[in-house]
Every structure is written in C-alpha cells, then in structure tokens.
Specification:
By secondary structure, the chain is α+β, with helices and mostly antiparallel strands. The protein is built from 1 helix and 9 strands; from the N terminus they run βββββββββα. The chain is rod-shaped, with a radius of gyration of 28 Å.
C-alpha cells in the first residue's frame, strides 16, 4: 500500500489496453469517483500519465480506476494522509511494478485544488475521397469513344 500526501504527484501506468484505445482515469474511494483525465493507449496498449492529487483531498484509501469501452482496471490501494505538499523535493528512487495499473509517486510543489482539465479527444473528419480517379476514368472512356467514332468514319 502506497502512502501519499495531498498535492503529491503520481505517475499512473496502464497496460494491456487496445491499440489507440481512449482510457478515462478517475480516483475512487467508496462511492466517490473523481474524474481526472482521458488518455490514449499507445500502439502497444500502454499509457503513462502524471496525476497531481488535489491539495484538499481528504485523507483515506483510494484507487485509480482506468476505464475504457472494453476494460476496467483498478490500481492497488493508495493511502492519502498528512499535510498537503507545498514546496518539497523528493530524491528517492521508486520501483515500478508489473501490475496492470500501477502508481509511481513523486512530490510536487504547491498544486491547485482544482481538478486537472480533461483532455478532449481531437475529432477528425475522414479525408474527402478524391474525384481524380473518376475524372481519369471518364476521360479515358471519352477518348475511347472519340477514337471509335474516328475509326467508323475512316472505314466508310
């Protein structure tokens, strides 16, 4: 069980998601769910995201929840306790586990208690299909018809 202070910084890592799958990260406790950010898994189905805990986060046991259309993964328990971190440095080495969703805590200077902005997915429109192949095809048919008419006139 990892212990963190409010205002701490946590690197969340998720694995075994689908290629380019959007994943919504939340911090949960009992029936409370605090939405954090939406990330996208890379080509290997992995994502990492740095999360800043709110400085006014109440003490207690929490889990990070990573939810996509096909998966719902919960991190190991983290315990939030103590005073908010405002201006401290951390020089400790952290281990990274092979869990499906793990945390790597670090510390951060003063952090706002407002939630992190969500990352809106970029909406892209599919590229318009080119009409050039149709133009070339129609031109080719027109040229063949023209040659056909010329050949008919020559034979007469």
């Amino acid at each position: 069980m990892e212990r963190l202070n409010p205002g701490g910084v946590v690197e969340v890592r998720g694995v075994d998601f689908d290629y380019d799958e959007p994943v919504v990260l939340s911090l949960t406790r009992s029936e409370i769910r605090i939405p954090l950010v939406e990330v996208t898994a890379d080509a290997e189905g992995v994502f990492t995201q740095i999360i800043v805990l709110p400085v006014d986060l109440p003490a207690g046991e929490y889990h990070f929840l990573a939810r996509s259309d096909h998966h719902m993964v919960t991190s190991p328990t983290i315990t939030v306790s103590g005073a908010a971190l405002l201006d401290q440095e951390d020089s400790g080495i952290r281990d990274q586990s092979d869990l499906q969703l793990g945390i790597v805590p670090t510390l951060a200077p003063g952090v706002s208690s407002t939630p992190l902005p969500t990352v809106a997915p970029i909406e892209t429109t599919p590229p318009e299909t080119s009409t050039m192949p149709l133009v070339w095809f129609a031109s080719g048919i027109g040229i063949l018809l023209l040659f056909g008419l010329i050949l008919l006139r020559v034979k007469r």
